[in-house]
Each structure stands twice: as C-alpha cells, then as structure tokens.
Amino acid sequence: MTALIARCELDPALEGCTYDSQVLNGTDPQKYVVLYLQRTIPYERAGASDPIAYDWLLTVHSVGMTAVQARLVSSKVVQQLAGFRIAIDGWRQTKCRLINSEPIDFDTGVQPPIAYGVDQFTWRSDAA
Amino acid sequence: MSFDFSDLEKLAADISKVPDNAGPLIRKAVEVTARNVKDTAAQSVKGGASSWKALPDAIDYDLNGQGSNQFSSQLNAEIGYNKAKAAGKLGNLREFGAPGKRLVPHNDLATALAQNQDDFTNGLSKAIADAEKAAGL
After folding, report:
1. Mean pLDDT over residues A109-128, rounded?
2. A78 domain residue, yes or no
3. Phi, psi of A70 (to 5 degrees)
4. Rounded CA gap, B50 and B75, in Å?
5. Average pLDDT estimate for B28-37
6. CB contact (8 A) between residue B105 and residue A110
7. Across residues B108-117, what is the average pLDDT?
8. Over chain A, what is the mean pLDDT?
9. Looking at beta carbons, which residues of chain A come within 8 Å of B110?
10. Residue B1 has what pLDDT?
11. What is the pLDDT of residues B45-84, one digit of tens each?
12. What is the distance between the alpha carbons of residues A47 and B28, in angstroms, rounded to a whole number?
C-alpha cells in the first residue's frame, strides 16, 4: 500500500492529499484519495500448499468538494497508477490495469456533501 | 511449384458454417455464466451485515444480443443491481463504498465475475467445440 501511495504522490496535484481516512462533518478536505486493496483469487497448484498467483483489486475513491475537483483528482490517480508495476518481494507483478471508472457521485453522509469518483485497478502477482 | 489449397478451402468453408451453429450455444454459455455471477454475488451480499438484507434480490442480469449472425453477432450480459428494485439504489454503496461514511467497497460483483472467469472460458470452449462437431469438423 505504501508503494501505491508513494506512486500517487509523485503527481504534484496529489501531494499532501490525505490517504485512507474519513471526511468528518465540518471539515473541508479539499481533495484526497482513499485506497482499498483487496486480494481476490488465490491460484493454487494441485498438491502444493502455497498459492502460485493472486489477483488484486484496488479501489480508489478520489474525493473533492466539487464534481470538477473530484474528477481532477481521479484523472491524476489514473495517470499515476495505470501501467504502474508494483514491486513485491518474491512475486512478479503484471502492470496495474484500469478496469472500471464510475461517474462522479455525491456522498451526502457528511455536510456539505462531498463529490467522489471510483476507479478500480487490477493486477496479478505470480510467485517468482 | 504448385500448392494444393483444397484442404484450406474446405477448412475455410467448414469454419464459415460454425457461426450458425455456435450462436445459440455461445448465448447459452454467456447466460449460464451471467446467472452464476449473479448467484455468487447475491450469496456474498447475503453473508454481509443485516442492513443489506434486501440487496441480494436486487441483483439481476440483462442479456443483450441474439447470438445469431442474421441479426447481430454481438452478445453481452450486464449483471448488477437493478435500481428499480427495492434497495437496488444502495447497490453502488455496497459495491464501491462511500468515503464520507468510511464505507469500504465490498466488490461482490467484481469478485463474483473473477471467480466465474474460468467457467466462462470453459463454457465458450465447449460451445465452439460442440458447434464444430455439429459442422462436421
């Protein structure tokens, strides 16, 4: 996760964003990014105890106070992460691939409502 | 020097018959996978918190295309939350989460799709094999 955050922060527009946090009522987050990483399917070889590969699904919330701001954050995130190859010791990774972009939506769970876009990326890790 | 193209021509002719036979079989493979993805995702949502109890029934699928080259060779299945059904509008929150409420994405549909990928590939291979068999290949 640290590597993914560091990669996002290479873009000056995303520098100083808050990662993996919650917008609280009354705060003005301006813009920030939340990353959720999920390991999906382990690929196993018959008779072997350890998986030989994993698929990963990274969901990114690109948040802004307006739809325009959220869209800007989302585009910067996509620029940084699409095609990025993460390094994990002992595993060989495919490049990070953008598989889904949801239109900007509003979360009214906080006041004022915040705008956010959802982008999803995937890659596969094979045992080296 | 000469080449005998007769086998090649026969193969080309035989393959041209395949789409006629393959369409309905491919449609079936797509539909079976769509239903499996829907069921897998619904099962995953059911296993979640009780506040999502109406959500599993809001998942359905639409199958578009005839699987016939007379009308359209395009086939696709769209699986997801039906917003017209009860709780269907909450599907986006369950699937993708929401940052203000610290609602994490559950990705039930994305995971179900990934889980059924191999079955889909196998189903398509079988459909093509059956069509080729029916075409005498």
Report:
1. 89
2. yes
3. -65, -40
4. 36
5. 91
6. no
7. 88
8. 83
9. 40, 57, 99-100, 120
10. 42
11. 988 666 678 899 999 998 887 666 555 567 788 899 998 9
12. 34
Give me the percent of chain B exceeding a pLDDT of 90. 20
Nearest to B96 among A40, A41, A102 (CB): A102
- Identity at B44, one-letter amino acid code: S
Per-residue pLDDT, averaged over A60-78, amounts to 91
Would the pLDDT of A25 be above 60? no
Structural domains counted in chain A: 1
Contact A114 B96 (CB under 8 A): no
Q: Is residue A32 part of a domain?
A: yes
Note down the domain range covering A62.
2-43+53-127
Beta pairing partners, A19: A33
> Please, are residues B37 and B61 in contact by the beta-carbon 8 Å criterion?
yes
Q: How far does A75 lie from chain B, in Å, by closest CA?
A: 18
Domain annotation covers residue A83: yes
3-state SS class at A72: helix
Q: What is the DSSP string of B1-39?
A: -----HHHHHHHHHHHHHHHHHHHHHHHHHHHHHHHHHH
Query: How far apart, in Å, are the Cα atoms of B125 and each of A11, B21, B23, B80, B130?
Result: 44, 14, 13, 25, 9
Q: Report chain B residues whose CB lies below 8 A from the CB of A34.
A: 99
| Nearest residue, CB atoms, A107 vs list B99, B110, B114 | B99
Distance CA B107, CA A59 (A): 9
In percent, the amount of chain A with pLDDT more than 90 equals: 33
| CATH at A36 | 3.30.2000.10
A48 located within any domain? no
| C-alpha dihedral, B80 to B81 to B84 to B87, nearest 10° | 170
Residue B71 confidence (pLDDT): 54
Residue predicted with more confidence, A59 or B74: A59
